[in-house]
Write a structure and sequence with these properties.
Chain lengths: 104, 408
Amino acid sequence: MSNWVEVCATDEIDEEDVIRFDHAGRTFAVYRSPDDEFFATDGLCTHEKIHLAEGLVMDDIIECPKHNGRFSYKTGEAKGAPVCVNLKTYPVKIEGGTVFISVA
Amino acid sequence: MSHIVIIGAGECGARAAFALRERNFEGQITLVGAEEHLPYERPPLSKDALLNRLEPKLVSDAARYADAGIEVLTGLSVESIDPAGKTARLSDGEILAYDRLLLTTGARPRPFPGLSGANHRIRTLRTHSDAVAIRAGLQPGAHLAIIGGGFIGLELAATARKLGARVTLVEGLPRILSRGVPAELSAVVAARHKAEGVEILCGVTIQELSEGPDDARIFTEDGRTIVADLIVVGIGAVPNVELARDAGLVIDNGIAVDAHLRTSDPDIFAAGDCCSFPLPHYGGRRVRLEAWRNAQDQGTLAAANLLGTEEAVSAVPWFWSDQYDLTLQIAGIADGATQAVWRHVAEDAFILFHLDADGRLIAASGIGPGNSVARDIRLAEMMIAARVRPDPVALAAPGTKLKTLLAA
Ligand SMILES: Cc1cc2nc3c(=O)[nH]c(=O)nc-3n(C[C@H](O)[C@H](O)[C@H](O)COP(=O)(O)OP(=O)(O)OC[C@H]3O[C@@H](n4cnc5c(N)ncnc54)[C@H](O)[C@@H]3O)c2cc1C
Ligand code: FES
């Protein structure tokens, strides 16, 4: 069962950027890709639980601000040392200029 | 090629072993390490591992080595290499024949001059067992004296304060972090340590250390005696080059390698803290880095070159340190800078950009709570690699997105 939660207006996330979104005691990272699509993953790096939203988005990669661990934010895949555990991803939809993620 | 032997099971050796498999090497890989543990991360040893971790934070668990078909021999050291016969002799007498060899022997703490023998109250910090021994001495109220105001000493000071120990730090130079860190940043670090109750004594020359059954003492040249329960010496590290030197390889402030990480023997490579290499972007000057990401990057690169890819070092040096809630990050090397540009990032967070006479960005040093400077330092690193000459006014303007300057 999906559980859509409102995140923000689409224009609150820059292209090729990320924001942190906290909901019900959990933290997520919500991305806007250079080709203007939206994605969502767990908010914390799988290496040392650092907020990824302070990291750098380049193409389809989010790089952790702490030790530069890299993930694909589209698939959640960990791209090599120091991170080896993938990120969980969440479905995203856009309705009327608003970003929603499904956190179920 | 059928057998690659990697000597030194630290961050760099472990990374190289996995990278060989990622590059589809199907031969035998043997990773030999003198420590009893599988390769683990050293950075936590002066940070949170000292607070709450009883086991080392492994780079990978045993199952991943097994899955990748990497044979890890722990608790064994290589005692000699015969480059002509292409063999390595282990401390248990076994002889390993190799086709290609990678040396990732790392570095060890520089000993305090004149100090010899086993000391219980005078220690250094490099390994998990060092950390365990130091932690045992850091009860609340215990007095820790640290010699050396470098990163490891300062991180240890911060951690020891969290554990409730009293801390005195003695530095011989006029300021802490004088190697590679701008004065503006080291002033922030020093002020924070003072506010946390660390006593920092700069410009103090130590004459002698002594250890008794109940305490350890520092005798300074100006006649002071500092009495502590535990002394930790953090005055830098020396590369483990003896094995390479005895094998006849060229040594130059580390095992000398070329831009492909190849030593003076065509079948032997070296990477990580143990080697010196020509640094690109800085006129190819020879440096030896002691940095965690460098160990990973060079491990990965060495794997590629062991397999015949002729790929040159291209990474810009990058380093971080955590003390209290402050993180400092430095990209590049600021020596030779003629101009520093200050960028305000947030309250308590700033970055200094270092430009050379041509206006090229050659380094960036930032400090702030948490990861407040991380993104801009990372972008600065990319600008350094791209040899960008950014507009100093734009760099200084907090409103400028650094991404827009990458193409400058
Ligand atoms: C306390 C501490 C904190 C640190 N914090 C940071 C930080 O915050 N940021 C950062 O960027 N860097 C940090 N570093 C530096 C970073 O950990 C090192 O750069 C990194 O560990 C280097 O990896 P390496 O594999 O080259 O060498 P090492 O980690 O030194 O590993 C080399 C291994 O080889 C083994 N060995 C040596 N000779 C032989 C032999 N003949 N036979 C078998 N085995 C052998 C050694 O026992 C050792 O296990 C820190 C280091 C320490 C000690
Ligand atoms: S915390 Fe993300 S890479 Fe280490």
